[in-house]
Specification:
The protein has 187 residues and is an alpha/beta fold. Helices cover 35% and strands 10% of the residues. It is built from six helices and five strands.
């Protein structure tokens, strides 16, 4: 089985290098270490800030870890709903309404997701529910292949994930569980 490359992941649109970053030449074998004046002189566009004081930004990666059955998917769903309705999320101001969210998950059946969606709908209200519906897509467990998200080791799963990204054109992508994105044991 062919393992997907990290370069292929970025080319597929599933990941994006951060803006403002330089990469050291691979031939030097050293990290890029800029002097303070160079950092101070860097210019950034603040429109990439999605939450709080840069707690979440476009083209950034964030990791939220917790034990099984701790509502990590609901956490992602509520974050998406907060962004698209202009609500605060866990006391953080949200920025960037109208962003399309794609959530890949492999642990919650449709009964659980329906329960979560009903809670979200109650939280955002009928008047804003359409904003959630227009900007949130979630991977559900319909057939056996849906339970297998091991995109780091399974080429077919990687290709399905890439196709979902191409089809839905998300601005934000969330994954649960982490074990489905890594090789070996992530803990």
């Amino acid at each position: 089985m062919e393992k997907p490359s990290k370069e292929g992941f970025f080319e597929s649109g599933l990941g994006t290098p951060r803006t403002g970053m330089r990469r050291a030449s691979r031939s030097t074998g050293c990290f890029y270490v800029p002097p303070p004046d160079e950092l101070v002189a860097m210019n950034f566009d603040d429109s990439d800030n999605l939450m709080g004081d840069r707690v979440l930004c476009k083209a950034d990666e964030r990791l939220s870890l917790d034990k099984a059955a701790s509502a990590k998917v609901f956490f992602l769903l509520q974050m998406a709903a907060a962004h698209n309705t202009g609500r605060d999320f866990t006391r953080f101001k949200t920025h960037g309404s109208g962003l399309r969210w794609l959530i890949f998950q492999a642990e919650n059946d449709n009964r659980r997701l329906r329960f979560d969606m009903l809670r979200l709908k109650k939280w955002v209200g009928d008047s804003d529910w359409h904003l959630v519906c227009e900007n949130l897509v979630i991977h559900t467990l319909e057939i056996e292949a849906d339970f297998w998200l091991h995109i780091a080791t399974d080429r077919a799963a990687f290709d399905r994930a890439c196709e979902a990204v191409r089809r839905f054109k998300p601005d934000v992508i969330g994954f649960d569980p982490l074990k489905d994105l890594t090789t070996g044991r992530p803990e």
